[in-house]
Amino acid sequence: MHTDATVRLLQKGRPVFFMTVEMQRDYKKGKYATLHAYHGSGVRNIDAGGHLFVLSDKPGATAQFRSEDAGRRAALAFSGSFHSGGDLEKLRDVEDLSLGARAMPAAMADLSAGVPGWAREVLEELSVGDLTLADLYFQTMLEEVPKMTMVGEALRPELLERLRELESFRDYEARVKAEADAEAEARVEARVEARVEARVEATTQAKVAEAKAEDLKDFLILRGDAPSEYAINTITTCRNPALLSAWLKRAYLGATSAQLFPEPKESKDSEQSGA
Question: What is the residue extent of each domain of the chain?
Answer without folding.
Answer: 5-74, 85-165, 201-274
